[in-house]
Extracellular solute-binding protein
Amino acid sequence: MRTRLAVAAAAITALVAGCTTSGGGDEPAQEAEGPASLTFWNTGSDEHAAALQAVADTYKQSHPDVTIKVQALSWDDGHAKVLTAATARTGPDIVSGGMSWGIEFGELGGMIDLNAQEIGDIKAQTRPEVLKAITSPGGEVYGVSFDNAFYLLFYRPDLLQKAGLSGPPKTWEELTAAVTKLKAAGVKTPLVENWNTFEWLPWFNWLKQAGGALYADDCSKATIDSDQAVLATATWADQFRRYGVPKAATDSAAGLANGEVAMAIDGSWVANAIDSTHPQLKGKWQVAALPTGPAGAGTFVGGRIIGVMSYTKYPKAATEFIKWLYTDEAIQLLQKEVYNKSGELWLSPRADQIDTLNTTDNVKQTLKTTMETVSGPPNCKGWEVSQAEVTKKLQSVVNDNVDPKKALSEAATIMNTNLK
């Protein structure tokens, strides 16, 4: 971890020293004349890149002077590759990546502020909580929301009924009671928790449900050590310490299919993948919003941003393509192509497009309900580099029986240091 941070720090220093065009206060790059040939680095799977290429090819039919080549970046090294491209000022014209990437690379001069490209319609169609997460403290938007993903509770109604449960748990208390009853009824693993299992992402749900936050609203200090955060961390840790939730990632679809798993907290994209990978489960599973905590509902929303690199020769052409991705035509084509190539559900930031998804009414309604409760990652300085160390502090509560208050106080120190 220290080696990675040292390399990143060195690259960032070079980027700040070497940039002549900033994504913030400076004028955006001038548009080159002639046809635009754009390279789009999409962080995600090869299947997602293929789906996007099909969409880009459709765009070319109505924009013959714009050619877009989509390349896949893995999540493992995508961040480092985009940082290197920004440092060298050569590489893709368009990038997609983690929700914090736009702010991080934009404030280093690596991406343009899309506000200068008239993105008012896109901002109006984005959930306020998502827009807040991707907008820098100064108001710049270096990357708009490309797709959304959030946690849902997948479950087998028949297994719940056999354990004497009338439906999915709706509160923290009902969740632990359900796990206890399912275990007694012979279910091997009543609950699994995926999507960055045993890391800060799933813990964030508990934090929001307890009424806590990672930082103060003005990013002046970390608030991860609040009383609400301590309660959330203790409750989250009890899943693993008392109720047998695995710390290792689990194939939730396979577990639901063979009956070893009754409930799975997993990402929204799994909603279509269950039936495509385990057709024998069709009609035998359902989905619900996450159980609520003492402060009510709360769900982490992730996904990708998409933005334009500051050195591109075609800032306008690149931004026009991004704007088109928010149209009904593009969204519905992406939904279709992602499903056909990967079996997954692709969720647009536009909530009004949920009804166009090729999925069940139960999934659609749960997506709508959950989208009303989402909170994105903080837009505060230093969060991107703090995440791994914060995860270690959270894990120490489970692995080493560290007091939650002590672990969170240490996490707050790290976060406050990175704020400077």
In short: The beta strands are 36-43, 66-73, 94-98, 144-155, 189-193, 261-267, 286-288, 299-308, 374-375.
